[in-house]
Design a protein that fits this description.
The protein starts with 14 loop residues before the first helix and ends with a helix. It has helices at 15-25, 30-37, 41-49, 56-65, 70-79, 97-110, 149-154, 166-184, 187-197, 244-248, 259-266, and strands at residues 115-118, 124-127, 220-224, 227-236, 250-256. Residues 1-10 have low confidence and may be disordered. The protein is 41% helix and 11% strand.
């Protein structure tokens, strides 16, 4: 006898419900949104309650004023019965050749300092040769694609045992991810945050990042072949993206935080 599994389809939420959720997430009143988006409060209320169907242009305008990510703007359009406005080409697509070239130039230009490119889910997209310095001693299982750089960093078999200030760096990464979850409402990122919170840490993890005397950033302090290396990082994104993939790419470049680290990177062993 063949067992038949019944799959219950969860109906998509109406566009009005989604828009109200985004407005409340951004802590914007109906009045404030109606003023900035130049529509009447009554009309906005009707849209949110489903009494009025918004036009395609209105969905896009409200998504813009609510700072909804491009991926979720497409979901709003689909919920309203319209086709997505923003394409999502793979990074290997022919039309993304200029983006690929820009990424390669940025990565190569940052050598001999480490740099990585990640997507919205913190999966490693690309890196330069110097990024390998950060990964020495990591369990090879964590380097099997797709590589999640947050998991790789905080996992007890990953970089965590080599990070001198693991408590500080953990707080920094979890705080960044927590803000991203608030901005995107992405359930996959929420699950990742819950997973990372469950990893062990034998150091105090500050709830609020407060600088000590003379501090201007949270450094990444890494034990490497008997030497402590210190880095700070800068994050870059592409300006004016109209493609979901391009909008979600993040380039993180690491810089030496002291002369000893700079000298070590300039003269690799």
């Amino acid at each position: 006898m063949i067992a038949v599994t019944t799959v219950t389809q969860v109906p998509p939420q109406p566009v009005g419900t989604l828009l109200r959720a985004w407005r409340e997430r951004r802590r914007i009143s109906q009045l404030d949104l109606s003023l900035t988006a130049e529509i009447s409060t009554r009309h906005l209320s009707f849209v949110e309650t489903g009494r009025s169907k918004p036009s395609r242009e209105m969905v896009l305008r409200l998504g813009e004023h609510l700072d909804v990510p491009l991926r979720e703007r497409n979901q709003l359009l689909l919920a309203a019965g319209y086709a997505p406005a923003y394409r999502q080409a793979g990074l290997d697509a022919p039309e993304m050749s200029a983006v690929r070239e820009a990424v390669r130039l940025l990565l190569a230009g940052h050598d001999p300092y480490p740099a990585v490119v990640v997507d919205r889910g913190w999966h490693l997209v690309d890196s330069n040769a110097s990024a390998g310095l950060l990964l020495e001693g990591v369990d090879p299982a964590l380097l099997a694609p797709p590589v999640n750089v947050l998991r790789l960093t905080l996992h007890p078999d990953g970089m965590a045992p080599h990070i001198v200030n693991l408590g500080e760096w953990r707080a920094h990464l979890l705080g960044t991810l927590r803000r991203q979850v608030a901005a995107t409402a992405d359930p996959a990122l929420t699950a990742l945050l819950d997973e990372l919170r469950g990893y062990p840490c034998d150091q105090e993890v500050p709830e609020v990042e407060v600088p000590g005397p003379g501090d201007i950033f949270v450094p990444l302090r890494l034990r490497h072949r008997g030497t402590e290396l210190a880095f700070f990082s800068a994050v870059a994104t592409f300006g004016t993206p109209l493609d979901v993939t391009m909008a979600e790419l993040v380039i993180e470049s690491f810089f030496p935080a002291d002369e000893r680290t700079a000298a070590r990177l300039r003269t690799p062993e």
